[in-house]
Amino acid sequence: MNSQDAARFQDMGILPTQASSGAAQVDLLALAMLIFCALVLLAVFGLVLWFSWRYRAGSSVKRKPLSSERKQTAMEMIWAGGLFIVFMGFFYWGVDVYVQMYQQPDEDLTIEVVGKQWMWKLEHPNGAREIDTLHVPVNRKVRLNINSQDVIHSFYVPAFRIKKDAVPGMTTSIWFEPTEIGTYHLFCAEYCGTNHSHMRGQVIVMSQQDYSDWLTANGHEQTAALDGAQLFRTYGCSGCHIGSSVVDAPVLAGIYGRVVPLADGTTIIADEAYIRDSILHPHKDIVAGYKPVMPSFEGRMSEADLQKIIAYIRSLEPGDWQLERHGGNP
Amino acid sequence: MSAVVPTPPASHYLNPPWGLKSWLLTTDHKRIAWLYVISLSGFFFLGGIAALLIRLELLSPPTDFLTEDFYNKMFSLHGIVMVWFFLIPSIPATMGNFLVPLMVGARDMAFPRLNLLSWYIYTIGGLLLIASVVLGGVDTGWTFYTPFSSQYSNSFVVPAAMGVFVVGFSTILTGLNIVTTTHEMRAPGLTWFRLPMFVWGNYSVSLLMVLATPVLTAVLLLIALERMLDLGIFNPALGGDPILFQHLFWFYSHPAVYMMILPAMGVVSEIIACFTRRPLFAYKSMALSILAIVLFGFLAWGHHMFVSGQSIHAGAVFSLFTFMVAVPSAIKVFNWVMSLKEGYIQFTAPMLYALSFLGLFTIGGLTGVVTATIGLDVHVHDTYFVIAHFHYIMVGASVTAYLGGLHFWWPKMTGRMYPERWAIVAAVALFIGFNLTFFPQFLLGIAGMPRRYASYPEEFQFLNVMSSLGAGVLAIGYLLPLVYLPWSLVRGKRAPSNPWRATGLEWQTTSPPPVHNFKVTPVVTGPAYDYR
Fold first, then answer.
1. Which residue in A22, A205, B292, B437 is a FRET match for B265, CA 20 to 30 A apart?
2. 8 Å CB contact between A114 and A57
3. In chain B, which residue's Cα lies nearest the Cα of A98?
4. pTM (2 decimals)?
5. Does the interface ipTM go beyond 0.90?
């Protein structure tokens, strides 16, 4: 989430690295614009300084009589007309670049992006999920379908020159084709509350082989979690942990890795071993504030199923069950 | 500028009574202008303190000096205070109030009591805003984007929004007064195309105020209602549309940018004409391009939403209109530059401010063309590039013109001269300090640093430190006048009626002017800027 080790990033320095096919097009337009701005600026500053010197009150240079209003308007129209033509050129060019940025290409893969306070959740086509880090293959067209779970965020990768708001209630979309292997900044560019400036991450562009290896490894983990979600219901876990039944059981969303207070006043970290113990020996460590009512699943659950359920609980994030628990209104 | 020490006029608006009642119940537009000068200065320095804290936090990459929440509240306060409690009323409510009646040869504003009421409304709005700060502050940014402001923020959004809501009425009333005064109270012979540019600037800004502010009023009310009653106007979970808020907000807030710059253009035109001793170049197109800016200014709001999810076609159309509004602005720059030609230029402090305005406005305008180019805007949108761009316009240009105008008309407003040397130091410090502060922010934006970040990656530190150090120089430029202008009220040399030998009706009456401005209603027989 908070990328402390800046040396990892390729896009350092005053000009961000060009790391996508679109970036080169944007930069060409920017260069033309820079030349135009420099010329106008030079003309304005140059004339102001020159006139200021030449026509200072003390100078004896002979002043010509003022030109007529008609002549003045004519001069002005030449300036305005010239600028207008240049402006229309930039307008056309700018729209052209913009349309290419957003229009649907024949993409090679689509990634689902969800912004929420204050993290980016990313899901690959095979179900592999990650947070704040996006792995993508080089030289492949990647489309992002962007949503938000709460307020407006904005998905911004300077090295790719792309930015698109994540708006609750609608899906926005943008695409890019990375051209350079490396690690690049991912920023939230739309102010979204307290930790807006920590809603940063990274985009890791990998070779296509590395990406497909990464996908296989992580996709497997994902499949286990998906199976686990199914088993979580079959074994009846969801009845107490999710459903609004009379039995009050702890919410497990986001439990993994957290410090849990126990009934005997001590605490424990909810690692894999703890989750396993809680399923097989539920009376061993009782969570503070809950009754020891959970049955043991020792001998009633195969090791394979157990692993899948643990994978599922690990994959849960804070708030994942809110919809189910509170009847659809987060 | 004669060697004879001028004697102050026997009777003028600053004569006793001087009691609190004589100020708080005055209907004299000149005294009301002073009420505004004092309250606006207070808010300017409140907003400035918030800016100082922001720049201190950004000296280092992690959030170490302030907490995230406090930082967010500071940039929100800075924006809200500077936009609504300083910039928008700045020139119209102070110099506009003081000078428009004088310049058109009237005895007062069209509605003197409404004028006083608008100051009271401003004060009530200001108290509401201060109340929101005392309660704990607001963290939505000055833009109040939904659904963050209407659903998620845990800060005091409603009091702050109501402060802005209330101050909007003050803006509308001031606008109404200036429009009516310009239409109805011009002296005999003062036709539209004989009006000074300052009146044109304040007249056109008043049109914007009267037409655009009600939309802001409505949208702030909707936010408060949605927050308190869960209405579902902007909240998508209840069928609302968060983008609708942005349309309504920018329909007001884009013209609001022109509210800040048009009167500044008027001020600078007066100063340039006076200190070149020449009529303005192409007077008529200057007036007409102001009106063109008003018109196109209303059609460009969607460029704030180029990456927000509005359609590609809408983006293209708004890009086109944004280019259109750049054309009249460019005409004005051309005319000011050409006005210097064949002149007899005197480099007084007001003239230095005016020339600074010209440079800073040009940079601000050109970078506006960069952001109008929609394919480029996607990269720099919501980054420090945009921050730098609009500060060049709203601060670099507008505040510089505000200070230039304050110096230019100081003799008329107070009957005293300001100390010229100190004023030149302040003007130069402002130009250098401003560029040191904000130019690095263009580079930060190009490098990709998003706005409203309390912490940032390490590679952005160098430019941020540059910017913060520049702000120190800029502060000198702002603090000096705060010292020597009040000093000059007591110790400054007495000012004659027309120390600059300027044209314009305001210089034909005494300094300070009598209570009813003119002993005899003036008659106008020639064009504005009848120099030489």
1. B437
2. no
3. B375
4. 0.86
5. yes
